[in-house]
Amino acid sequence: MSRSASPQLDNLGLPEELKIKLMEAATRNNRSAAEEVITRLEETFSREDIAEAKAARDALLVELGDVLQTGLAAADDLNEVQASLQKAQKILDAKRAASHPSKENPNAERDKVVNGIDGYGIPDLGE
Question: Any idea where the Arc-like DNA binding domain is (predicted)?
């Protein structure tokens, strides 16, 4: 390619083979050599921006997954705490009832506490 065919590219110090490719692409795309260079550079930077955005998105998805896992584990822990509190409440209710025996069988409630409540086998802890 002669210097007069691509004066816009001559000042860039590009290899002759690259100048030829750019001029052929510019002709195919009905652009000047400068417009072709600008368009290709913008596309390159746009792809880099997209790649960076995808990488940031992927990192956020990983972090979100970790947060969700932590939340699910905490929910499981809360369910266990709730179940333990319910068991403790039953024991407390039975102890209260044992301290106020019924007239028919004054030792019935106390026997429940001593022998275990609702199959938990929790012994009387003393009063």
Answer: 11-48
Q: Which two tokens stand for residue 81?
A: 């705490």
CB atoms within 10 A of CB 31: 16
Its pTM stands at: 0.43
**CA of residue 120 relative to chain centroid, distance:** 39
Backbone angles phi, psi at 105, to 5 degrees: -140, 90
Structure tokens that stand for 26 in this block:
């510019």
Q: Rounded to an integer, what distance in angstroms lies between the CA atom of residue 1 and that of residue 13?
A: 14
- Give rounded-to-5 percent helix, strand, coil for the chain: 75, 0, 25
Helix (H, G, I), strand (E, B) or coil at 12: coil
Interatomic CA distance for residues 120 and 107, integer angstroms = 19
Six-digit token string for 45: 């930077």
Residues in the chain: 127
